[in-house]
Design goal:
This protein is an all-alpha fold and 149 residues long. It has five helices and no strands. Pfam families: Oxidored_q2 (PF00420).
Length: 149
């Protein structure tokens, strides 16, 4: 297979930049990282789908010997739609977060910070206390009254 170095480097740079942006704390940068990774995957699918050829719908078009792969085109079209759905969802999360906190930065969870600072023995003891405090019958959705139906 004849690999084009420039397109593979472009895909690699898009993935690397997307991962870097995805690891940021700001939701808008996370969204841009998701979009960049999605575009890189679309380019990769198109790149590995094979050489260009005749359209798959028409029998005779130009003088090319091969027919273009319709599966790769359908996968890219589906991936574009899914990426737009994910982008809309992350934009809604960013908008809601901004309305609640007036900041775009995702902060640390105080409970996760507290648990991460516990020693191993304290974490095991705290987990045991939580397990002992919960009665399994309290977790049932239907309360058994004890009367036959």
């Amino acid at each position: 297979m004849n690999a084009h170095l420039f397109s593979l480097l472009t895909i690699g740079v898009l993935v690397a930049a997307g991962v870097y942006l995805l690891l940021e704390r700001q939701l808008t940068r996370m969204l841009l990282g998701l979009l960049m990774i999605g575009n890189a995957v679309n380019l990769l699918i198109v790149h590995v789908s094979g050489p260009p050829g005749n359209p798959p719908v028409q029998e005779s078009s130009s003088g090319k010997d091969t027919v273009a792969d319709p599966l790769a085109q359908a996968m890219v079209l589906t991936a574009i739609v899914i990426t737009m759905g994910v982008a809309a969802f992350v934009l809604a999360l960013a908008y809601r977060s901004y309305r609640l906190t007036t900041a775009d930065v995702v902060g640390d969870d105080p409970e996760a910070t507290r648990v991460s600072q516990l020693s191993d023995e304290e974490a095991i003891a705290a987990e045991r206390d939580v397990d002992d405090a919960v009665d399994p019958h309290e977790l049932d959705a239907v309360v058994d009254s004890g009367e036959p139906s």
